[in-house]
């Protein structure tokens, strides 16, 4: 039977493809505007989305907020819960916003995933 498994399921070991560890997006906005993005995650595994701190005087302000898990008739233990990332343009300039998906207590370990927003802020109208 063991000999038949590879013949029956030759691609089984290749089915799980890792997601790209760093996603990138370019955003152009005007001073005073706000952009939101929703990142999928599952805090019950210990992983949380957290934005890296921006330098003082950055062109943008960034906030993350855990959104409620999808409502179901019966609660599901371990259900995913998305995180909303809000980027607010403060003044003209550029900024790199990095949001990491990691376990906060695992110091010195690379995040499981990261999203990098390259933001250009134009003068307001």
Give a quick set of tags describing it.
single chain; three-stranded antiparallel beta sheet; mainly beta; four-stranded mixed beta sheet; 125 residues
Give a short overview.
The chain is mainly beta and 125 residues long.
Low-confidence runs of at least 5 consecutive residues = 4-18
The residue-averaged pLDDT reads 83
Total number of beta strands: 7
- Describe the sheet with the most strands: 4 strands, mixed
Please give the alpha-carbon distance between the first and last residues. 71 Å
Oligomer status? single chain
- Rg over C-alpha atoms, rounded to the nearest angstrom: 19 Å
Strand-and-helix sequence, N→C?
HEEEEEEE
Shape: globular
Strand residue percentage: 35-45%
Summarize the amount of helix as a percent range: under 10%
Please give the order of strands in the largest beta sheet: 1-7-6-3
Helical segment tally?
1
Describe the protein's architecture and organization.
This protein is mainly beta and 125 residues long. Helices cover 4% and strands 42% of the residues. It is built from 1 helix and 7 strands. The chain has one helix spanning 4-8; strands at 22-30, 34-39, 48-51, 60-66, 83-89, 93-102, 113-122. Strands 1-7-6-3 form a 4-stranded mixed β-sheet, with no helix packed on it. It has a 3-stranded antiparallel β-sheet with strand order 2-5-4, with no helix packed on it. The longest helix has 5 residues, at 4-8. The radius of gyration is 19 Å and the shape is globular. Mean pLDDT is 83; it is low at 4-18.
């Amino acid at each position: 039977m063991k000999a038949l498994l590879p013949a029956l399921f030759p691609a089984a070991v290749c089915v799980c493809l890792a997601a790209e560890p760093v996603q990138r997006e370019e955003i152009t906005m005007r001073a005073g505007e706000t952009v939101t993005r929703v990142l999928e995650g599952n805090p019950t595994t210990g992983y949380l989305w957290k934005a890296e701190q921006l330098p003082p005087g950055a062109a943008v302000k960034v906030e993350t907020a855990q959104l409620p898990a999808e409502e179901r008739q019966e609660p599901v233990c371990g259900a995913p819960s998305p995180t909303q990332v809000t980027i607010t343009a403060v003044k003209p300039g550029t900024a790199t916003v990095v949001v990491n998906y990691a376990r906060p207590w695992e110091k010195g370990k690379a995040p499981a995933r990261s999203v990098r927003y390259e933001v250009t802020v134009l003068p307001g109208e």
